[in-house]
Write a structure and sequence with these properties.
single chain; alpha/beta; Nucleotidyltransferase, domain 5; 2 domains; six-stranded mixed β-sheet; 5 helices; 11 strands; about 30% helix; about 30% strand; Gcp-like_dom
């Protein structure tokens, strides 16, 4: 069995998880603006308690986005630094796919994962369950809520902070989506499940090839009146 570490800082939550000997350990905390200070100590404690070092790992998974620009940079930078030093590969994992998997694990079969992208936009993608894992029905996108469009004639579970904009979405979307939780975060533990799939499929990449996914390049734009 591979030894995998996963980490995510793409939202207000910060999480670290370890897959070792078929078991998962996780440290999950909602700590806005504290990721830079807390992530490395969380990783160190996780590894020390398990009695292993970074060099013992087979790969490191990380939340590559979309999400908070600063948060994605933190996770990517830490994962790359650790991987370079230990000479091990990385597994970039979609934050939206992680959210979708968390709902599939509770019995839902169709999930639209959405994160608040600020600037009156959301990051979103739709997934269906196949053998218990999420399969993308739409590409990952950044859109104004009014531009969200889903396949007709089916019902969806909505999860993630982006669903705070449900009232601004088209009536067809409002009629076909049941929002189970706006506070559903991407987590390192669900990323481990996706990382195990990708590791087995040979999708691990070198640190320099593991890039963040922002979906939006205009990071400096601010809403009128925003300080």
């Amino acid at each position: 069995m591979p030894k995998l570490l996963a980490l995510d800082t793409s939202t207000d939550a910060c999480s670290v998880a370890l897959y070792l000997n078929g078991e998962v350990r996780e440290d999950f905390r909602v700590i806005p603006r504290q990721h830079t200070k807390q992530l490395l100590p969380m990783i160190q404690t996780m590894l020390e308690e398990a009695g292993i070092k970074v060099t013992d790992l087979d790969a490191i998974a990380f939340g590559r986005g979309p999400g908070s620009f600063a948060g994605i940079r933190i996770a990517t930078g830490v994962a790359q630094g650790l991987a370079f030093a230990a000479e091990i590969p990385l597994l970039p994992i979609s934050t939206l796919e992680s959210i979708a998997l968390s709902k599939l694990q509770t019995g839902d079969t169709q999930v639209v994962a959405a994160l608040d992208a600020r600037m009156d936009e959301i990051y979103w993608a739709a997934y269906r369950s196949e053998a218990g894992l999420p399969i993308a029905v739409t590409p990952e996108r950044v859109d104004a809520p009014v531009n969200v469009a889903l396949p007709d004639g089916t019902l969806w579970c909505g999860a993630g902070s982006g669903w705070c904009y449900l009232a601004d979405m088209p009536e067809s979307v409002q009629a076909s989506v049941t929002v189970s939780s706006e506070l559903c975060y991407p987590t390192a533990s669900t990323m481990l499940t996706l990382a195990l799939r990708d590791f087995a499929a040979g999708k691990a990449v070198s640190p320099e090839q593991a890039l963040p996914v922002y979906l939006r390049d205009d990071v400096a734009w601010k809403k009128k009146g925003q300080q």
